[in-house]
Amino acid sequence: MKKGKLIVFSAPSGSGKTTIVKHLLGLEDLNLEFSISAASRPPRGEEVNGKDYYFISTEEFKKHIKNEDFIEWEEVYRDNFYGTLKSEVERIWALGKNVIFDIDVAGGLRIKNKFPEQTLAVFVKPPSIDELKIRLKKRSTESDDKINMRIAKASVELATAPQFDKIIKNYDLDVAKEDAYQLVKAFVKD
After folding, report:
1. Which of 47, 70, 115, 122 suits a disulfide with 83, CB 3.0-4.6 Å?
2. pLDDT > 70 in the chain, percent
3. Is the pTM of this model over 0.85?
4. CA atoms of 125 and 129, how far apart (whole Å)
């Protein structure tokens, strides 16, 4: 694969990583393009193939795994796979852009381990587990059971924060956005 910059943002659900990544994508001087993940599940709600995810069948996903077409992949639930295709990263690098990922903690660390020199791995840390729970409830998109499952997972994910290059504490979203901008700007310029 051709060499280029990879910027990984990982965090527990509700930490603000998606909001921060969307903010960074709007800043032209960073020259970023979003990496679209592949998923073996059907689209939900308003999701669009090729914009939100590349929706492929479980059978097709397993074929890509066998052919080593992924930079990283994970079976989140039985026969429910997510991953980053090498072709997606190559597509973005061919545009002369830096790749930015909004990805789970395990996937983010796999990218960092595979491309240590060209990856900036950033962990977005919420103020507390209690604040995370409040943010997830405010979304009003999931049941209490699903929220409790995400909170339990968040405790495990928070323990991985020291494995990332940088940690951004999202106590104040505007400050977190600026911290992220400064980190990414310094990384893509060198």
Report:
1. 70
2. 99
3. yes
4. 10
